[in-house]
Specification:
The chain is 61% helix and 16% strand. Strand 2 and strand 3 form a beta hairpin. By secondary structure, the protein is of the alpha+beta class.
Length: 89
């Protein structure tokens, strides 16, 4: 996947208000899905759907914590977006 395709994939993932809210919740934090869910007005299956899209786009990553996973923003993805946007504008 080239940089343009990667950027467009990330932008598609960011085009939903719920996914933007998830990223705001995760900013600077590592949280489990139950912690994310308590700050949102969506069901657990809906959260899983949105997390899957964010993971596929490379915007968040999982960290194994025993039997569960925590989520955090992928700093490489954040740096890529900042760099890419800086090149375009």
């Amino acid at each position: 996947m080239n940089d343009d395709e990667k950027f467009l994939s990330m932008m598609r993932a960011l085009s939903d208000p719920n996914r933007l809210s998830i990223l705001r919740i995760l900013k600077g934090k590592r949280l489990c899905s139950c912690q994310i869910l308590k700050d949102m007005d969506i069901s657990q299956p809906t959260l899983s759907h949105h997390m899957s899209i964010l993971l596929d786009a490379g915007l968040v990553k999982t960290i194994p914590t025993g039997r569960w996973y925590d989520y955090e923003i992928d700093e490489d993805a954040r740096a890529f977006l900042e760099s890419y946007i800086g090149k375009v504008f």
